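User: I'm new to structure prediction. If I give you an amino acid sequence, what do you actually give back? Let's try with this one:
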Amino acid sequence: MGRYVSYDRPPVVEALMGVQFDRLPITLAHYGWFWKQLGPQQWPKALTAPHLDDAFERPGERTWAALGVRFEEVDAPHLRMQFVSADDERMLQFQDSRLIYNWRKREGAYPSFDQLRPEFDANLASFSRFLHEAELPQLAPNQWEVTYVNFLPRGELWDSPRDWPTIFPTLSLPLSGELDTFSGAWSVLLGDERGRLHVDLRHSQARETRQEIIKLQLTARGPVTSVDALSDALEVGHRAIVTTFDAMTSKRAHEHWGKR
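Assistant: Good question. You get back a string of structure tokens that encode the predicted 3D arrangement of the chain. For your 260 residues, that looks like this:
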């Protein structure tokens, strides 16, 4: 997971970095135009997905999770396009207010943040050229984001809930009975008003395989006002994720993952 802490066999199954920006007047034709510019040979699959709501972290302002489900009606251009690489490991997501670059674990090993960052930068540069050629407004970033998703499957490091504190020492809870399941979420302020780190830890089931897992998702997000400042912001987010992951997990787990 980057140059701060290194593992030979990290449990990460997905890593993404992205930028949110002021909404652009995107039409359906623009989605196809951008895909053609990227190159359908490199991104042979194009999928549509629901539009993501804008998400903001504002220094000094706490946001509360909404109770219930909120539905938003959007017209056809307000979709999210997902361009998928031939090996199914990379995905570039594009909507009128976001550009997101994903790596998903398939057959290959996690390539490291130091490899993914230049790939994100190259796609962001392609996106900026597209905006210029399409005579659309210049990119106006307002938020950055880095997310890492980790799966810890049952049978690997743990077999029952009583094993969880050997991976996450802070889960040694004073309970009157035997622990059956668990979920928890924390938000941590990043220094110098850079944003927040959201930590979500839960006993769950993998969607595709239905395998019982512990899922640990870490999302760092914060404000940014220019493309030039984006690079440093992503580094801040990655550093927060790596150091928090390392602090949350045990020496036993580090040895299993081949910490160096």
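You can read the tokens as a compact description of the fold. Here is one thing that stands out. The longest strand covers residues 141-153.
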